[in-house]
Amino acid sequence: MPLPSAGSQPARALTPNDVRLDPVDHAILRELRADARISNKDLADRVGVAQSTCLGRVRALRQAGVIRGYHADIDPRALGHDLQAMIAIRLQPHARGAMGDFVTALSARREVLEVYFVAGANDFLIHVATSSTDDLRYFVGEVLNRNPAIAGTETNLIFEHTRVTGGPT
Description:
This protein has 169 residues and is of the alpha+beta class. 32% of the residues lie in helices and 18% in strands. It has a 4-stranded antiparallel sheet with strand order 2-3-1-4. A hairpin with a 6-residue loop joins strand 2 and strand 3. Helix 1 crosses helix 2 and helix 2 crosses helix 3.
């Protein structure tokens, strides 16, 4: 199902799986991935469409859930969180029914930057940032490993992280 034109309303809410992106949509997404703060005028110029067409397409991409949001990428070190880690979490079998609540609780922790639900031996990967090894040890040992829903964890320190602005579009 193609994206609706700027003035039309879909009969039901679109999902990202319903959307067929054309070359202009892909160009818009590439430009927004590189610079989400680009003005509509500059975006329209870069992808070669009218400003009104560009604005309508971006709105349609947002409504369909293709564009999930815009955010500031803040370096945790600027906030005094010099130590980052990726922690694999394996849940107890009885806890799998409450994964939504588990994700909500994890997401509320100040240490947690991102939560990934994954396939394989583990159930989640979480990207965390702390101010010290003591803080990381406390978070893993006292917060995670004392949680009865968690069967086990594996922590990998992150020495360097590079955000990629390319990718599929």
